[in-house]
Records
---
Amino acid sequence: MGYGSYTASDWSKLKSSRNLSSTQTVQEVFKSSNCNPKMNPKFIGTRECFDSSDHPNTTPIVVALDVTGSMGYLAVEVATKALNELITKLYSTGAVEDPALMCAAYGDYMDTAPLQVTQFESDIRIAEQLLDIYFENKGSGQVALPCLWEFLAKHTNIDAVNKRKEKGFLFSIGDQATIRSTSIPQTITRVIGDSLPSATRDSLLKEVQEKFHVFHIMIGGEGNNDILPGYKMSISQNDIGCIPQIIISAIQLQKGEKLDRVLEQWDSVNVPVISAALKQLNLIGVLREICL
């Protein structure tokens, strides 16, 4: 994993071969009818993010999408446009060294596939794997996001963490769905296979924060203030086109950049949306990890 580089021409070829368009439906973009075993965490021992000759200082970045029924438009936006913009802007801004991206999909805790995870990659395979995700399109409003936290905490082997003591970045993106605390241990056992009878939302979040700076982008409304206080950014559905810039800006702030320097790199039309999102973070003026 982690060899090769992402290029605009590779994206153009993939977009053309899959006939991708932001006007397509979820079913037209995500054609898988079931979960690919290669993305099923129960069959995955460890996801690795290792340095290589091509990328000697890898920075792991996880983009996790809510794939419950209400979030179809978001998945289409990311798959057909935003993911490509995020990767190209990561390179053009130099926000991190050697970005290696994993895509994840988290659904309802009662889904047949509540969690899917791709490999960490640095080339067009990032987008190819995302398109192979199974969009289950259900949901009762109780998401399995803690399963992703558990997987990243216990089932990743990351050179940035092990060799350089540098954390990766996790951005989950979804709407106002809640996390069902009472079902967490049983769901983790069913989805991942780990036995954690005393696991709670807070204990799993604390564990994953040892490896990743964890952020959540909330689409629509100000609900669920108990989810990642200080690390949650609420934006409207109309502003999802700014997600790549928001992600990169949050990374830069976490790495110590000043807010004005971060904002000046973006188109002035988008700055109000990006600024409003970033000002919800406790990082501004503090720029250090906050214990939850």
---
Amino acid sequence: MKRIFLRVAYDGTNYCGWQTQINGITIEEVLNKTLSDFLGEDIVVIGASRTDSGVHALGNVAVFDTETRIPGEKIAFPLNERLPEDIRIVESKEVRGDFHPRKCDCIKTYEYKILNRRFALPTERLYSTFIYFPLDVDKMKEAAKYIVGEHDFKSFCSSGSQVRTTVRTVYSLDVTKNGDIISIKISGNGFLYNMVRIIAGTLVKVGMGVYPPEHVKEIIEAKDRQAAGQKIAAHGLTLVGIDYKGYENIVNEE
């Protein structure tokens, strides 16, 4: 038995998120079925990030155990031939049997995109959120500074989350604008349920002038979901990647 590591990219438009559920087709479900059919085994993947319905990914991570004799690095190619076009394996390799994608220290990076112009563009509708009201990017940048660091992010967590602690560390939060696209890029050691979308929604409120930038500090201190801005739409969010500390040490070199 060996454990295979996958980096998975997908367009989340047609899926009900990552985790298998009865409401509709999911990324996890497709991977399980495709791998099981390909390897002739009952395969169940373990995912690193359970992205919501409509959220995209460039580098989510999953592992699975298998008896196959196919080298880990060669699994991606035949698997991609069997997967739908909106799901692709961008890396595969064998790792140590004790590696668990949700229990190892890592840095997760997400990007939220906003199309900020007078009229929407059809080509951006699936990958950014359209906001016609002009946003003050400089104020959003100023507000973002209050979020960086280790804080109790309870104000930015949707109800229904089952976690032991709501304390997380945000390593960086950058707000940039290129043409009509505003990008909110955030990296941290982990994120609460809907945390990135709520942070983005709160920064939008600042950009609209509803909150002054310094009010974000008060929102954090409140530890109350009602104090923060709205949870913004899922389709503007992409999981850019997950980097594991000491990544080279998880690879099975035997």
---
Amino acid sequence: MTAELICVGTELLLGDIVNTNAAYLARECAKLGLSVYHQSVVGDNKRRLSSAIRTARKRSDIVFLCGGLGPTQDDLTKETAAKVLKRELVEDPGTKKHIQKFMEEYLRWHPQEKLTENNWKQAQIPQGALVLENENGTAPGLILEEEGTTLILLPGPPGEMIPLFEKKVAPYLRRKQPEVICSATVKICGMGESQAETKIRDLIEKQTNPTIATYAKTGEVHIRITAKAEKEEEAQRMLQPMIRELEKRFGSWVYAREEQTTLEAAVVELMKERGMTLTTVESCTGGALSARIIDVPGASQVLKQGFITYSNKAKRNLVNVKKSTLKEYGAVSEKCAKEMAKGGCLVTGADAAVSVTGFAGPEGGVEAPVGTVFIGCCLKGRTTVKEYHFAGNRSSVREQAVANALVLLRACLMEM
């Protein structure tokens, strides 16, 4: 089946809000085996939204309409969809009861506000619609089936849309699929997408069922394998030979086989298994590396301390970088990165230390251009330093530096 995404809201067109809903829905559709060929964003305008819905119905089996279900006058999605399908709006008693209960609880903690008449607008639904109760808000989701095309209306706030999709919409779509769709993800790091694709080009060219696709991430590549079968057990069996083949080809580059496992989580788990501790010594990344590690539950068993040595003085005083090193080689150098990593281990007694120093921009130094970053890893007395040249703005350079610091730490751990 084909699916189409229409996200509604003038604020999306103006760039005031980043359209994360489209990215989420596209990923979930892929997991369900739905082919998404079209996405669009429409402002709060009845005529243009009507046109978008009519066009989508002609070419897609499932049409998602995200946003525009609120209580205000510029929330037009439900009304417009009803008009296109020539359905009357009727009050749904269950939704009205839910709104009453939800607002009573909300007003307990916000006594300065009150329940206004326009809140009841959300209890008006197109006749014959399947109502999906929204546990996190007052706007219900709606499913409208009409002549072979299904419209699925979802609230715009991600905190409402995502739980509603996972609990109500995904099970509904699975029941509509003639086949069971199962997918698995093999995650690799330390290799670019083009290099990864080259290693599996023969598999991609021959793919039928299961299918495989690569997705580039910062510092890593995800390879998704998807299989279709009549039963879930059969689809799962079909995935296994491809997973084994990918593991054979990529070897130690593979860091995870579960969608939810992040690179930092894999590194933390590896260090926990080996009973090792870590210190970070950061300059241009300003604590972003330690922040990613701390995001992992249980990171306290691994991370001993994090230093932000942004100035030369901090590098000298906190992790014993030599004054002569800074004068002769500069703060952005292989020598400095090496001393930062070694000093991190020495000062804290950690088994490993990772250092990052570079020019993130917008200006570089005399000795190196913007994007030059040195990353060091001291592990059990052995220190490795790598030089990188990243492209992009200041934020992008810092993000790439953090990702590659994790990649280098993992590579050093795997070589032990």
